[in-house]
Specification:
elongated, 94 residues, Arc Repressor Mutant, subunit A, 3-stranded antiparallel beta sheet
């Protein structure tokens, strides 16, 4: 849902969000509530509609947190093709 809202300019009406997905309305609203509770979305009422907006600062925190794991993984793990080349080279030297 975050990607749907993000690629639609950062805000969408709840009904428009629900129209993108094939699951029940209750599922959509529950997902929106969870994302709002996490601080990733806010909503405002415009008449009978709820407009959901992405909170870019909070999303940036998530992005930075995920990047941390990506950086650590790069340091800890090398691609399997690189490990296999190095191990073949070590075997040949023996």
């Amino acid at each position: 849902m975050l990607l749907t809202i993000y690629f639609n300019g950062g805000s969408m009406a709840a009904g428009d969000i629900a129209a993108v997905f094939e699951h029940a309305w209750q599922t959509t609203t529950r997902h929106l509530q969870v994302l709002e509770a996490a601080g990733l979305l806010t909503h405002e009422r415009q008449g009978r509609m709820r407009i959901y907006r992405i909170q870019p600062k909070r999303l940036e925190l998530v992005r930075n947190w995920l990047a941390h794991f990506s950086k650590n993984r790069k340091k800890e793990e090398e691609p399997s093709w690189k490990r296999s080349k190095e191990s073949k080279g070590k075997r040949r030297r023996r």
